[in-house]
Structure formats: structure tokens, C-alpha cells
Amino acid sequence: MPNILIADDQSDVVEALRLLLKMEGYKVDSVASPAEALILLQRKEFDVALIDLNYSRDTTSGAEGLDLLDKIQKAENAPSVVVMTAWGSVELAVEAMRRGARDFIQKPWDNARLVNIIRTQLELSASLKKGRRLEAENRMLRDEPPPVMIADSEAMRPVMEVIRRVGPADANVLVTGENGTGKGVVARMLHAHSPRAERPLVSVNVPGLSEGVFESELFGHVRGAFTDAKTDRIGRFELSDQGTLFLDEIAHIPPGLQAKLLRVLETGEYERVGSSKTLKSNARIVSATNADLHADIAAGRFRQDLLFRLNTVEIQLPPLRDRRDDIARLATYFLNRTATRYRRTFDGFEPDAIAAMERYPWPGNVRELEHCVERAVLMANGSTVRAADLLLTGTAAPAAPNLDDLSMDEVEQLLVKKALARFGGNVSKAAEALGLSRSAMYRRLEKFGL
């Protein structure tokens, strides 16, 4: 039901407006002074404010009403404003419109015209709110392709069954597993299988937020809440209302903010930073961690009651080394996707490459496999990917060579291999560790046939 605020110091005027608007199905609050109007606007959200321009202190100039109009424009989620006065003039109407009023009514008013103006402003208010929301979504979200989960192995069958059962529900889900196992993909699968799929899936990388901005990112803030808060900002809970909020690496949430997160999970209520107005969010929470939260609870780093709220259902993802039947299909999927991105064409993997991938322990799991295939796409010379293109170190560490027996090129080649192995094949990190630029690193990879 739309909320209308009436600000007028004449009780008979207020009562007449209240009866008229209630007959139209609107919820009405009234105040008798600009000060009361501003206090109520801090506590409650309105769609339209119908304000008088003249109050008891000054009955003709409209100065009090214009001052109130200015302050309403600066308020959080400012409503559309319609001004009215018994001393109307073209100059006063123009000034009110210049300061942000949406329309102007002179007393005594025509009921049909007033109701028509209110309806128009309600439609405009709804359109503006939708526009602000879409703008925030476009700024914070990116279009992503539908989630793909390759999971035919025996170890993944229980996971897929839980996703099938829990996806359509609103239950909060905690996804656990090692880094790189695909916890984010599970979150997207759960969202895609839910009735909320048409609403946003909003992701929060918890370790990437400092404690100082964490609350603002989750709950939003109002202009002036802190030094750099130059405009109102919509938080992740507001963006994910009726959708899904994915909290990645939840173990890193600052202890001082866990109580605030718990409150939202229990009641759906929160306040933007710098505001006393309570908002509500109906977001489904999917969280993920690679940590042992029970150990964190025992150490006092994580609240047990928060864990109870997060893991209505828990999904444990197995590491890639426990689902080797999926490796070949995952690698082929990554090969096709990456080859398209880099405008290359491949016929597939050589048998020795498949065998090497199925032997390798994959400490970085699926994420490491994806990076490994991407690197192979860049480095391979032919139309198929060979084992040598993958730059895998194997399951057992080779015996350390005697450096005195190696040439300078062989020593350099050894250092490059070790750097790549140390960083899971990440060329950028390996180059940084060796003090090389990316282009210099790629020249060495080409030189040594890596």
C-alpha cells in the first residue's frame, strides 16, 4: 500500500486530505510542522509527500515550506513532493518546482485533480526506485552465462542430489571444500534451480572487504554517513532482496560484525550505515568456506549461533583428486571455452596429456586445472594439447640436480620450472618471483619449449 505524508498545520485540511486519500486506498501519516515532517522521514519511508508552503511562523511567503522542500530533497530515499498553499502565485510555484517539487496545488483544491496528481507521482516514484535499483545492479553485477557443473563421478553424485533437492527451497546453504573445488559454481547452481532465478545472485568476497567498509558493502550507507559517503549507496542485502546473496569465504567476516549479520539472518532487518531507518531484505543466503568453522568456534573466532543460521543444509565438495573420472571432461570443457576466447582451434588432448592430468594431484583443484588448460592453449604449437604443454610437475618431486653440472641455460630453465610449479602454473606470479616481466617470462617459456 502506498505511503503518503501530509505536512500541514491546519487540522481541518489534514482531515479532509486524510479521508480523501484513504478512500483511494492509500496509507496516510500527517504532521503539523516541518520539524515533525523531517523526524518522521528519518523513521519511515514515503512514496509521496504533500506539504504546505505556509506554517504558523510565516503565513504568506512560503519560506518555511520551501526550506522543508530543500531538506526533503536531501533525505534518504526522498519521496516525490507535491506542494500546496492558499496563497499561491506563479512565482512561488516556479520556485517550488525549481527546488525539486513534482507538482503544485492551490487551496482549495479540486479532489479529482489532486487524486490524479497523487497517482501520477506514485507511478513516477515507483519508476525512479526501479531505476535506482537497476542502476545499482548494473554497477555491481555482471551478466554471467548459465552455470555449468560437470560432475559424473561417484564422489559428486551426492552433491548433485543435494543441489536437486535443496535448490528449489529457501533454506540457507553452507558449501564447504578446499580452495578451487567450485563452491561458487554450486552457489550459482542453487540459485538457478530456485524460484528466485529471475532475481539477482549477488556475490560478496568476504576476505576482499576490510572491516571499515564491510558494513557499508552489505547494508549500504546514506550520504554523509562518513567522509567519502557523497551519495546514498545500496547494499548487497538490498540488491539481493527476493534473490540470493552468496557470501564467499564466510570464515573471514570480522568478529565485531557477526552479530549484525546474525540479526539480518534471523529477522531480515537491517539499517544502512548512518541511518536509523529499518529496512528488510528477503534474501536467500548461500555461504562458502574452506575453513574448519567448528575449530574457529572453539577458538572464539566464529559465533556458533551464526553457523546454525548459515548451514541449514551443508554441501561438502570433494577435491578434484577424489573425482578423477571428471578430469578429462572438465579439461575438454575448459579447452573449448578458452580456445574460443583466444581465437584458436584445437582437436583435443593427446592421450599422454589426459594420462598426465589424471595422475596429477591437483592441489589447486578445478581452478588449477582451468588455469593449466588456459596456459596450454597459449603455449601449444599444434592442433592438440600434449602433456608437455600442460607444464605439470607430476605426482612425485624429481631428484634435485647438481647445479655444478648444469649450464646457465639449464639452471635458468630449472628456475622457471620451479617457479611455475610453486605457483600452480600461474605465469604472472612465477614471473614476479623471478623478477621478470610477463613478456620476458613468455620468451623463456618459448625458448625452453615449456
Provide an overview of this structure.
The structure is a single chain. This protein is α/β, with parallel strands linked by helices. Helix content is 46%, strand content 13%. It is built from 19 helices and 14 strands. The protein has helices at residues 11-23, 34-43, 63-73, 90-98, 111-140, 157-166, 183-192, 211-219, 236-239, 255-267, 293-298, 304-310, 327-341, 351-359, 365-379, 387-390, 408-422, 427-434, 438-447, and strands spanning 3-7, 27-31, 48-52, 80-85, 103-106, 173-176, 201-205, 244-248, 269-271, 278-280, 284-289, 313-316, 348-349, 384-385. The strands form 4 sheets. A 5-stranded parallel beta sheet has the order 2-1-3-4-5, with helices on both faces. The chain has a 5-stranded parallel beta sheet with strand order 7-8-11-6-12. Strand 9 and strand 10 form a beta hairpin. Helix 2 runs parallel beside helix 3, helix 10 (255-267) crosses helix 12 (304-310) and helix 17 (408-422) crosses helix 18. The longest helix is centred in the N-terminal third of the chain and has 30 residues, at 111-140. The chain starts with a strand and ends with a helix. 33% of the residues are buried. Residues 394-401 have low confidence and may be disordered.
